[in-house]
TrEMBL record:
Residues 120-221 form the OmpR/PhoB-type domain. The keyword Translocase does not apply. Signal peptide: none annotated. It holds the Pfam family Trans_reg_C. GO terms for molecular function: phosphorelay response regulator activity; transcription cis-regulatory region binding. It comes from Sulfuricurvum kujiense. One of its GO terms (biological process) is regulation of DNA-templated transcription. This is DNA-binding response regulator.
Length: 221
């Protein structure tokens, strides 16, 4: 699960996002002050920082500058301040993106994924017979490239990145951009069936993608 740090003094926002981001495989650690955020950066590992600008103790732009001097972790500014100077200075101080408030949580998810892709340009994940290359958006199976639709690629990527874990249909649909937000569980099942046709010797008795009754699917690569 990805680890994100949020420096935000509005408890309504942090409570909403802690619960929402969990559905997308992101554990959000929210603090309300810059000092608390800086302390956590010294002791814990994070994959992403979400930063408000209007904060107690110091301005968020100054905090952004301090964080960038300490680490190269991706920084996403989320602020109600719409002045173009704030956006420009934030980016000049090292922020990777600027998301104006208010926003839909789904847009935050899209921005997070975009920022993380830029920080993982050559990531490869090998899982026995499967080799995932996120830069090329390709998957090799037993040394040969698989011909996959966008939705098939995204689901199989999620399985490779989460081996031996039961993934719910909600988790799969939430984290696969090619699948519409309104997709039913049946849509996921159809795509899984197509994947089994491409990677399983006997799709009716799968060795890799297992159905877990009442829970979802588990991948054994």
């Amino acid at each position: 699960m990805l680890q994100a740090l949020m420096v935000e003094d509005d408890p309504d926002i942090t409570t909403l996002l802690v619960n929402y981001l969990k559905n997308y495989g992101i554990a959000l650690n929210a603090v309300s002050t810059p000092s608390a955020g800086l302390n956590l950066l010294d002791t814990d590992h994070f994959d992403l920082i979400i930063l408000d600008l209007t904060l107690p103790q110091m301005d968020g732009l100054e905090l952004c500058k301090m964080i960038r001097q300490k680490t190269d972790i991706p920084i996403l500014i989320s602020s109600a301040r719409s002045d173009i100077n704030d956006k420009v200075i934030g980016l000049e101080y090292g922020a990777d993106d600027y998301l104006p408030k208010p926003y839909e949580p789904r847009e935050l998810i899209a921005r997070i994924k975009s920022v993380l892709r830029r920080y993982r340009p050559t990531l490869e994940k090998k899982n026995k017979l499967f080799l995932l290359n996120e830069n090329e958006q390709s998957i090799l199976f037993n040394g040969s490239p698989l011909s996959l639709t966008r939705a098939e690629y995204e689901l199989l990527s999620l399985f490779i990145l989460h081996p031996n874990q039961t993934l719910s249909r909600d988790f799969l649909s939430n984290n696969a951009e090619a699948i519409s937000w309104e997709s039913s569980a049946r849509t996921i099942d159809v795509i899984i069936s197509r994947l089994r046709q491409k990677v399983e010797k006997d799709p009716k008795n799968p060795c890799f993608i297992h159905s877990i009754r009442g829970s979802g699917y588990r991948f054994s690569g």
